[in-house]
Amino acid sequence: MILIVHDFPQESEEHRFLEKKQQTIVISEKQPIRPCVGCFGCWVKTPGECVIRDTYGDMGKLLSRCTELWIISRCVYGSYSPFIKNVIDRSISYNHPDFVIRNDEMHHRRRYLNRFFLKVIFYGEDISTAERTTAKGLVQANALNFDCDATVAFISDKKKIKEVLA
Amino acid sequence: MNILLINGSPKRKESASARLLEGMIPLFHSNVTKTLSLFAGSVLSEREWDAVMQADVLVFFFPLYVDGIPSHLLYHMHTVQQMAAERDMCTLSVYAVVNCGFFEGEQTRYALQMVENWCIRCGFSWKGGLGIGGGGMLTAVSNLSSHHGPLGPVFDGLYALSDTIREQEYFKNQFLSPAFPRLFYKLAAQSRWRSAIRKNGLSSRALSRRM
Predict the structure, then answer these.
(1) pTM metric for this prediction
(2) Strands A95-102 and A105-110
(3) Within this chain, do residues B203 and B123 fall inside the same structural domain, yes or no?
(4) N or C: which end of chain B has fewer CB within 10 A?
(5) CATH code 3.40.50 for A2-165
C-alpha cells in the first residue's frame, strides 16, 4: 500500500497533481486535525494508537501497512508545512518508546517489521538554499528515526509532481 | 530591554521546556522579562500578540518533535510572519532553546536551523541557541541551578546564553547532553515507560503492541 500525505489547499489539486494507483490511501486536510499534546498516550495508554480519536488517530497503524510513504508539502522554513508536520507528529505510535543506537545516535526502536520507502516532495516558488539544506537534513533525520530509506525533491511548480513520482 | 520568553511546548504539565524557561528567568537579574505560553490549542489574546510585537528579544523554548518544530508552534510562527510583513519589527532579536528526549543535543540542529530560516523570512535577527539532549532528565532531576551534577552542562549553557541575551549579542549554537552515561539514561528512560504503562493498568509487554 502507498500512503500519500499532502497539504494541497484545494481538493481539486489532488486529482490534478496525483496519479493514484491501486492500493493507495491519501491523507489530506479534509477534516480538522488536532495537534499532538505530548502526552505519550500512544505509547503508555493505548499503545500503537493516538488517544486523540479524530480522523488522524491511526497514523501508526497506517504506516505499518505501507510499502511507500509519499509526503508532498509546501516547504516552510525548511520544515514541512504545519498541517503535514501535525500529521507526522501524530504518527509516533509507529515507533516503540524504547531506544536503540543507530549511527551512534539514540533513536526509537521499531514497533513494526515493515520497512517503507519515504519519498518527500517539497514545493514552493522561492525555497531558499538554507531552507533546502535544512529540509534535506530533516528528511534524512526522519529516515533514521523511522529506520527507512528516503529521497527528497524540490519543485517550484506542483505540475511537476507526477513527473517526480513517476 | 524587553525580553519575552516563549514556552512553545504543547504540554501544560511536566514540561521540560517550561523547566528550562523557569531555570533561565533568575539568570536575567534585573532585566525585564515576560513569559508567554503557547500550549497546544492555545489561542492568543490581542494583549499577548502585542507582547510579541513589542518585544526587543524573543527566546523560544520548545521540545523537538520528530526532528523539527512542534506543529502547533509552527502554526503560530507562520502567523507571526504574516504580522511581521505588516509591521516594522526588524529590530527583533531571536534566540531558541530546544530540548529532545534523545541523549544527544545535536539532534536538535535542524529545529534551530528552522527558527533561523523563519527569522530570515520575517526580517528578524537570528542570534543563536542551545540544543539540549537528555530531555527526560529535565523533569526528573530537581537541581537546575548548579554548575555541578547531571544537569550541570545544561545550567552552564543557560548561564552562557542568558549573558549573551542581555547584551543582545550573537551566540554560536551549542549542543549539550547531561553529565550522565548514555547507557544509564537509556535504561532509566525504558524503566520509566514500563512504570508508566503499569500505572495505566497494562503490562509492560503492551508497550510492543501491534495494531
Answers:
(1) 0.96
(2) antiparallel
(3) no
(4) N
(5) yes
